Amino acid sequence: xxxxxxxVHGILDYTVGAILAISPWLFGFxxxxxxxxxxxxxxxxxxxxxxxxxxxxxxxxxxxxxTHLLLDVLSGIVLALSPWIFGxxxxxxxxxxxxxxxEIVVPLLTRRHPEGFTxxxxxxxxxxx
Length: 129
What we know:
Elements: H1 6-26, H2 34-51, H3 65-85, H4 94-108, H5 122-128
Helix pairs in contact: 1-2, 1-4, 2-3, 3-4
């Protein structure tokens, strides 16, 4: 049921990462606390690990695609739960929940390996580190 190509996922990574990072200012919930910094850090982090992912849009290509997808899901869980974890749900929660669910669902629908790429494994990545 994985039908999203990694090439499309990569475009989403950079686009959603950037929107997520600026979302506090874009959607007007910049109050300087966790409600602001959680999406900013997770969005910037997604862009950063995308640069190191072994797929069409990666620059250094050291992180295997399955690891990247796991990072996306974990980030989505943290983001979706952050309003309650950090206690700002009474101020804002909907953007965090929507982006969080998106970050959970899209990786589950994305192919685990880019077409036409040499697949690196976690073991190979560790051996080169």
